[in-house]
Structures are given as C-alpha cells and as structure tokens.
Here is the input.
Amino acid sequence: MSQVNNTAILFFSRNLKEEFLTKHVGLNVQQFSNLFNLLVKRTQRTIDQTKIPVKTLFSDEQIGSSFGERLTNGISNLFSEGFENVIVVGNDAPELTSEDLLWVKNKLENGKNVLGRDNHGGAYLIGVSKKDFNPSTFLHIDWNTGLVFDQLKSLLSSEELERHLIDLNKRSDFQSILKQGLYLSKTFKQILKGIFGTYTLHTNFDFTLPKSIWFQLTELRGPPSFVS
Here is the structure.
C-alpha cells in the first residue's frame, strides 16, 4: 500500500535578478550569481533528503502583485492539490537541516503549526495546516519586515523551532554565519568565503545555474550575461 503524503514543502524564492536587486551584500554580478546558486542548491539538497513532496516557485512562477499575495497563492495552491499541511522555506537560511524539516512535518501531522524565528524578526520557516490557514489574514502580514514572526505567532497557534537561524540579507549576516554557523560544513564555508573573496577556492563545485532561473544580466551593466 502506498504511503499517503499529507504534507508538502513550498520552496519559495525570488529569482536571481530580483535577489541581486534586493540584497545589498557588496558583490558583483558574477559573485552574486555564484552565491545565489550555492544557497539554492543547498536548500534543494536539504529538502531532497527528507523525501517530502516539494513544489519550487521562483518569482516568474509566482502569482500576485505583492510578496504577500504570491506567498498566499503558493500555499493555497498546494492545499487545493490535496495536501493538509504546508512547510514554507526560502533560500536564505542554509543552517536549516533535513532533521528540522522532518520534525516540523511530524508536528504538523500531529496538529501543531510550527514557526522558525530568524535573527531579523522574520520567519525562516512557516509550517501551517489547511484548517488553520486563512488567506485574507496572511495577506495582511507585514511581510519582509521585522514584524513578521510576531504577527504570525499571534495569528497561528504554533510551536517554535528551538534554533533561531541567521537569515542572509546583509553582508554582516554572512560574516556572522561564517563565525557562528555550527550546522555548515567546512567545504560550504570555504566556498562562501571564496565568493566573498576571503578564501582562495580549490574546488570543482558546480556553479551552473538551473535553467529555470537563468536571465539576461546585460541591463545590470556587469558581465557575464546568462541566456537560455
């Protein structure tokens, strides 16, 4: 008898261009594309280890005019596909582990919503059940601010992941995670240092961008240009 999947992961991310224009970490286009690809692959690998069904949505696949609309629609669509629980993650909390995701899945399937607090007052993870998901109230969360976690906490009766993870939005966040990141491998840290120019890379790490997130960078006035 096949196992019924009640829980899905929504991997929700901006595309490369939007991330480059949004995050100010002092990197050129080539360096930032390497960074973006590193974080995306890290998250995808972590999700794959759980064997939980996943839907990946980059900016050009999201529906809505605001972040709140796009995220709400992404969650709603998974519920409409028959899932009872959704775990939302992004690409900017590389310390998240497969064990964390499986723990959240177990909590959700036992009737508990789960939130993960980041260092800026946001949420690096949202685990919500269909019965507790209210699209209209989700739309009114002050997304992309330091109010997000507290607003979600007041909205959802939820448990909290013990670890408060660093959300990578500023250069200082990357400096912090290189010093404090207990759940990152030495190789990952070396690659990260190499991207920021503080370590000479001696690795064959594959920086090839997935085709779904290629875009032309010529308008950013910096080489190289990626075209499909």
